[in-house]
Design a protein that fits this description.
With 223 residues, this protein is of the alpha/beta class. The protein has 2 domains: 118 residues, Response regulator (Rossmann fold); 64 residues, no CATH class. The chain contains 8 helices and 9 strands. The chain has a 4-stranded parallel β-sheet with strand order 3-2-4-5, sandwiched between helices. It starts with a strand and ends in a 35-residue tail after the last helix. The structure holds iron/sulfur cluster (2 copies).
């Protein structure tokens, strides 16, 4: 899932300065699961903003609405009847959801209430770890299911650098060397020959937003 964390309260407050009526929109998917931007977090933030507004003698009228996914047009439609009643929108979705919201309502100022952090896994309640940087060319089949882009400090696709040191990464002795872990995993599975297979370098130059259309679907004309 996409993991995010709420922005510091003062930063959110500063962004909303001057707006009298703000709709806070939560997202019911990734950010809800990682406890950053779902229905509960929307309510908590609104209570804090409400209290702060009263203390500052500058009250804001706050609305709340959490939709299933802000990155999906189908769910954004539910906001259409509400948006014009507000001066600004605060979004608790990931960066993709916030941008989709901003595209749908270009006449309305939209502010992010969370910082999108990484694609990760849930290790325990409130504990998340990064696992993927969406490189677009997954090599997990060669690397024993360990992502070299995310887990190696240099994102190396084809084996360790000279800094690998008895299982640790040169940047920190408590950080395991990703390529040591990959070697160990492949060795255990009897697949060490994979280490010799070469993954072409990823061209990170001239990056433009990527598009994916699944087989059997086509790009909709309606935007
Ligand atoms: S190689 Fe790593 S960053 Fe690339 S898609 Fe696979 S898990 Fe994600
Ligand atoms: S020591 Fe290992 S994890 Fe650290 S940068 Fe080098 S190859 Fe990557």
């Amino acid at each position: 899932m996409i993991v995010a964390k709420r922005k510091p309260f003062e930063e959110i407050k500063e962004m909303l300065k001057g707006y009298k009526k703000v709709l806070n929109v939560g997202c019911g998917t990734c950010v809800a699961v990682c406890l950053a931007g779902g229905e509960k977090e929307v309510d908590v933030l609104n209570i804090e903003l409400d209290m702060a507004g009263k203390l500052d003698e500058n009250p804001i009228e706050l609305g709340a609405m959490t939709i299933e996914r802000q990155c999906d047009r189908e769910y954004l439609e539910a906001l259409d009847p509400l948006v014009d009643d507000y001066d600004a929108i605060l979004s608790m979705a990931c960066g993709a959801g916030i941008q989709f919201l901003a595209e749908r309502y270009p006449h309305k100022p939209i502010f992010p209430a969370v910082d999108t952090t990484f694609i990760g896994v849930n290790q325990g309640v409130g504990w998340y770890e990064e696992r993927c940087r969406s490189c677009g060319s997954c090599v997990l089949g060669l690397t024993g299911g360990i992502c070299p882009v995310t887990m190696c400090a240099k994102g190396l696709y084809n084996g360790p650098c000279g800094g690998t040191n008895k299982g640790s990464c040169e940047i920190d002795k408590d950080q395991p060397c990703a390529w040591y872990l990959i070697y160990e995993r492949l060795s255990r599975q009897g697949r060490l020959d994979n280490i010799l297979k070469f993954s072409p370098a990823t061209d990170w130059q001239n990056q433009i937003p990527r598009t994916l259309i699944q087989p059997g679907y086509k790009k909709s004309e309606e935007v």
